[in-house]
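RETRY 2/3 - previous attempt timed out on the joint model. Re-submitting the same 613-residue input unchanged.
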Amino acid sequence: MRITKEDVGRISILARLKLSEDDQSLFAEQLSGILQVIDSLDEVDTGDMNRMISPAGLTNVFREDVVLPSIDPEEALKNAPDKEGAFFKVPRILEAD
Amino acid sequence: MGCRRLQGDRRETRLRLNELKAHELLPLIRRHEVTVEEAVTETLDRIAALDGTIQAYITVAREHALQRAKEADARLAKGEPPRPLEGLSIAIKDNICTKGIRTTGASRYLEDFIPPYDATVIERLEDAGAIVVGKTNMDEFAMGSSTENSAMFSTRNPWNLNRVPGGSSGGSAACVIANEAVFALGSDTGGSIRQPASFCGIVGLKPSYGLVSRYGLIGYASSMDQIGPMTRDVRDCALILNVIAGNDPRDSQSYPGELPDYAGCLVPEISGLTIGVPKEFLEEGLSGPVRDAFMKALDRLEELGARVVEVSLPHVRHALAAYYVISSAEAGSNLARLDGVRYGYRAPGQEDSASMMAASRGEGLGPEVKRRIVLGTYVLSAENREKYFNEALRVRSLISRDFQEVFKTCDCLVGPTSPTVAFEAGEKTRDPLEMYLSDVYTVPPNLAGIPGISVPCGFDEEGMPVGLQIMGKQYDEATLLRIAYAFEQATDFHRRRPEVPQKTYQSESAGGERSV
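RETRY 2/3 succeeded.
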């Protein structure tokens, strides 16, 4: 399966990943090569095999509903690129009217 | 500097502390023949002398380490009993969070990130008395096989400075063989502990999925990630595993069962055990020198009394394809956390949050990481999910079943760790597929969740080390380590050390943390 530069451009929007025109062309070429290898999965007769999500084979774990110590807000904000008071600050989210 | 005469040693051996393995250094510290500060200073001096050449470390935590060493000596002076890893200098791969010590994942995106908490493995190692001396270089977010995808710099292979140390835990492997740490931690999603261990001639263990907590690890592909020890011999590996293995409620996939004393399982006795050789591991792509060393290793295992039989893992040739679908899908999802909001890089001058996120990721991440996010998003998109992602998960089931079948008759499996010895720097950077093939033998155990260990099993004509991979049953690290130990004790490959020309690095300030 070939992947085009337009495919890469469309996916990069889904992935919130800004890519230059050059990168889009390069990735289209490289990912097409990788997909050729991946396409070999088509040859496998997987019949009614289950999808293996995790090798742990564990079941859900419940814990007691008790409060445990956690990182305090000041500590948690130390690595923030921008903050105001006890909050992370970001550029506007909603469209300007 | 570097030499010390030990009291009571009648042969008057002059000993370099930084050459000692963990199990050799521990008794000296316990008997108060060496202080923790002396031992740690030796390692720090070795780093100062050598790391300008090897470039294994992104951050050297000199002040932190010396402070901890003094605290340890004070405890011992008060008569407190020595802890299991008292005073040992450890290097930590830079994707494992260390409270107060910068943790970058070798990414520009996290260049200034200082974790507010310790990973579980760090808590356990420090509680056991080990001392973090620094954070090691790696491929950005563990995506790569040569450490050339680091956004900081490349690490050199101590056996030949023009070759790569392997990856992604290349800094950890290089610093252990160059005596720049007593041991190191790496992480392994598709071979990232075992392949660099093989390339650098050390021991590297990827434990069973779930055996070691990943709390505090920068996740890459969470259904395969494991943290494991990288050491100079198998006994050290078992000592470290004893400390880091065990249930942790903060890792939802953590194994809850009882665990043995791994060091106590080390008897060099394997007669009567059945060792399987998957024929698929010896097909095209395997280089001549690696094949030769592997065949000699098989002879040695037979001489030790093991029964060596050929077996087949019919679906394993699809492992690499399944691995790249699953790992990229999981990576794309995991790395969605890099959104420019809570930590890490934020692109300046963006009008709204959506453009800020896209630009921060576009500017802050390197090419291999971006490539895998795009691939991961592609295989999970509505029109491709069934064809690629779901199919890869079914193939994964088949591969897992292949292993279960052969383990009905075999105690372990062996094969080469990687098809070649360490390759030249720059040789595979232009073609991602070429690079991926370096992990062709290490990926299957991650898919199946079983443990794998690489131990030195020879050298090629140019003096580059070759690794033997031993794969075991899930959670049966005890048998795996016993076979690795028996092989190691019957050979001397693990005793060789490279000669590294020394070039001092320029530290930012005397005694300060190293900057990049």
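Residues 57 and 136 of chain B are 4 Å apart (CA to CA). Closing ticket.
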